[in-house]
Design a protein that fits this description.
Elements lengths: L6 H13 L10 E6 L4 E7 L4 E7 L13 H17 L6 E3 L8 H11 L5
Parallel strand pairs: 1-4
Antiparallel strand pairs: 1-2, 2-3
């Protein structure tokens, strides 16, 4: 019997593969997404300096939704991170889905960020 790798290890492998192809610069930073079972997190990262410009999550005090484990909450987190990025002067980003499928909560976070003014 062949032992199969767990899904988290597969996601990390996909994320490493994607990260070899995309990267954030000062003019166009990377919007990274991480989702757990109960929450969703987003960061805008400049990879040339290795700094996080802004971040938002479903655990923030300003978060309007009840939880990040549904699509409505993910959309609100996307809007929140986009508002913070625009305040910092970031208008265009590279979207890093973090090895997740571009579906469900990840898709809703991206749509929320686009609604609030980010371009990608």
């Amino acid at each position: 019997m062949v032992k199969r790798p767990d899904t988290e290890a597969q996601r990390r492998r996909r994320h490493r593969r994607v990260r070899g192809k995309i990267g954030g610069t000062a003019s166009r930073p990377r919007l990274n997404v991480y989702r757990s079972l109960n929450h969703i997190y987003a960061q805008v990262i400049d990879d040339t300096t290795g700094t996080t410009l802004c971040s938002a999550s479903s655990l923030d005090k300003e978060f309007k939704g009840k939880t990040g484990s549904n699509k409505e909450g993910a959309r609100e987190v996307g809007k929140l991170v986009a508002e913070r990025a625009v305040k910092k002067g970031v208008k265009s980003v590279v979207f890093d889905r973090g090895g997740y499928l571009y579906h469900g909560r990840v898709l809703e976070l991206a749509e929320g960020a686009r609604e609030a003014g980010l371009e990608f």
